[in-house]
Amino acid sequence: MNIQVIREACCAADDQLGPLDASYDITPETSLAELVERIVQSRFLQFSSTHHRLCGESNGRLLVEVHAPGGPPPTFHAPASERVSALIGEHPLFFDFRHVGR
Fold first, then answer.
1. b/e burial code for range 44-61 (CB count within 10 A of at least 16 → b)
2. Does residue 75 come out as left (phi exceeding 0), alpha (psi in the -120 to 50 range) or beta?
3. What's the CA gap between 71 and 61, in Å, rounded?
4. In degrees, to the nearest 5, what angle opens at C-alpha 16 toward C-alphas 60 and 18?
5. CA–CA separation, 41 vs 99, rounded Å?
6. pLDDT in tens, 61-78
7. pLDDT by residue (tens digit) across 91-100?
8. 61 to each of 18, 48, 54, 71, 92, how far by Cα in Å?
């Protein structure tokens, strides 16, 4: 299965230079934690000094918060062990800098 991941740019230069979407091939058994780890390891998500936490959501549901390198590990708002296929199906996964509880 192929998951489309779309992210918000962290600054004007990133908006012009960086890719803002990527695709990840996963198996139907891939967990949310495994997908997030692949996304983080690929360095697709970009951060700046003022934008250091991305919220990952799909189909209107907040699933995970990912912090800039050197920050805390991801915070899961859905079970990390849940299969991506069950959580989001064929919907894209969006990462944006929405501010959630401080």
1. bbbbeeebebbbbbbeee
2. beta
3. 23
4. 65
5. 23
6. 999 999 999 999 999 999
7. 999 999 976 5
8. 26, 25, 14, 23, 12
Residue with tokens 């079970």: 79
Going along the chain from its start, the domains and CATH numbers come out as 2-96 (3.10.20)
Q: How many residues does the chain have?
A: 102
Of 86, 30, 38, 39, nearest in space to 58 by CA = 86
User: What are the structure tokens assigned to 99, written together?
Assistant: 């501010």
Full-model pTM: 0.91
d(CA 30, CA 24): 11
- Find tokens 């050197």 and name the residue: 70
Q: Quickly list H helices, 1-102.
A: 12-17, 32-41, 84-87
Whether 9 and 98 have beta carbons less than 8 Å apart is answered as no
> Which tokens belong to 18?
């960086």
